[in-house]
Amino acid sequence: MIQIENGVFALSGENYSYIFKLLCNKPVHVYYGPYIPACDPSVLATRCMRSFSPYHPIGGGDQSISLDTLPLEYGERGRGDYRTPALTAETDGDATTDFFYTGHTVSSVHPTADGLPTLRGGETLTVTLQDQTGNTLDLYYTVYPQALVRRARLTAAVPTRVTKLSSLSLDLPETYTVTGLFGRHVDERNIDSMPLTNGSYTVSSTRGTSSHQQNPFLALSQNADETHGLVYGVNLVYSGSFDITAAVDSFASTRVVAGYNTDTFTEVLQPAQSLTSPECVLAVSDCGFGGLSRSLHDLYRDYLIPEKYARAPRPIVINSWEGCYFDFDTDKLLGMIKGVKGLGIDMFVLDDGWFGNRNGDDSGLGDWYVNTEKLRGGLKPIIDATHAAGMRFGLWFEPEMISEDSDLYRRHPDYVLRTARTPVLSRKQMVLDFSKPEVVDNVYAQMEAVLSAYEIDYIKWDLNRHITDIPDLHTQHGFVLGTYALARRLTERFPDLFMEGCSGGGGRFDAGMLAFFPQIWTSDNTDAVARTRIQYGTSLAYPLSAMSNHVSICPNHQTGRTTPFETRAAIAYFGAFGYEFNPSLLTNAERDAIREQTAAYRKYQDLYLSGDLYRLKNPFAGNAFCFQVTSKDRALSRITYMQTLCVANAPFDRIYPQGLDDADYHIEELDVTLPAQAIMRHGIAVNLSGDFAAKTLTLRHA
Ligand code: DGJ
């Protein structure tokens, strides 16, 4: 809801309020937190003059009107605010900006964003500000039940060099503990938490993609755990280089600024041209991190992930990668397809290696036509066999890349993202300059030809290196826009095509990709123990339905660890489920187990894809992992507990379920019925035998 009265703008959703007001025509922040009625509580906060904080002429000599100390809706450079700016722009002879309110509109039409992905729907308040140069700045606030989404747009009246245009700045009144998600390839989204002190903390990427290294998500909390305490979440809807900074000033207030990474970004605007920042989600919870995550999960499933697929059943996949890597031909693939027939698998996905002269990772990228030397008769016999085995067919692409040894490179060396220097290689490949429309057109035409020639229901879109060799500070962002343009074009041309995102596993796991890709390959690490941590960290911001998880063969290819087959499935159920191995290596017992697992996933997938997640045990903090997912109507709940190492003669561990409603529940595996309050307060004792052992409990309304 958006309520505006006497220059006070009160925005609210189901559990939050966000209030700002005009002070001398500057939008100043009043309140963001758990819901309060629309009002102006800023009368409870006094202002005072601070030495060395310059007072602005708008105050008519009132020395407390300083941009350095007012909580501002959008921090600027050069007029007395020395905190982290949201905007830095330069016009002829002037490196300062000073924007003032000129008007606002409210609309239920979601504003477009110049090729950037956006959430759908919501009600949007646009506050328009103007600078004396004539440049205008629109601040957008889109209100959803679960969260607020902000972004900004700068339109030039005079030539303007923009070095920073953030999605938001937010001035909060206190200091907080900051939590970010960091990692590396095969170890994504670990959780880092620390108290903010004076100075700033930044999570960022300069890699041209959101990256394995740091995710575009940050939380600020006070005395919070999974169930208690105030937590703010900030999550950018962007897949390129970003930064999110939380900075504490000398009066113990915290400013959060989020947007494009400024080390890799500059745009020059000519009169009438404009620049838009990505959308940034702001969510708040007063019941800890669990509440924050559930709000974000619902927001993304309701308003971001393609509507058609957000909650739709996902195909159970068998992916060829760990089963054969590059080493396959038609016969081997036919053997794999035959090998999984009747196991309850829905989709055979042919991974890397089917195209051009791609026999290893040093060639072929950019040549999206079938390698008929390897695949005798092309894809048709494989697709026919897949259909005959009762499955649909999916195919791997890496659209943004090019190998030096490729026809595309031989024809178009000019398509490579480069400067006059020799390009830097990574995984023996170079990057296509997706900021050029003709490059995107070429890749689109090649993909379109394959996708229209064959019955392909699913693609896995990979990206296996990060960006280097940018000719200017405009190109990295242009590259990201090219990626979005290709994804948009493909989904418009093939509306039934299901796309899974991937970047060497979870290197581009962000809300920007989720606008096109209902699910993302969470990590190249398929080890169940490592996955408990990766999936736990990922779930801080992203719903289970977005996480693609596969059961693979042990010893695990990434860690060398052997975990029980049931444990691998129990952990992979928490998302979009699948397999990844050569079926000829399966024992009969494993084949039987797969039949049971695919049936179980099918039975419960609606719960996993649309339910509420409660994180009961944190694998980063102890020897166990435990997730509980409860249906929206609370009638069904499943809990999976996994212990890492078995301890001899160990004390019982206890699971305290959450979020059950006031009813009796039957716990199927224990065959007991008890009131929910008893189950939640008494807890369920567990004592498992064996390393990596897992146990799943199913609770239903009695
Ligand atoms: C990285 C992906 O994450 C893997 O699953 C696989 O598709 C390889 N790339 C193929 O090169």
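^ DGJ complex. The chain is about 20% helix and 30% strand. Residues 321, 351-352, 396, 462, 464, 502, 504-505, 521, 524 surround DGJ (CB under 6 Å).
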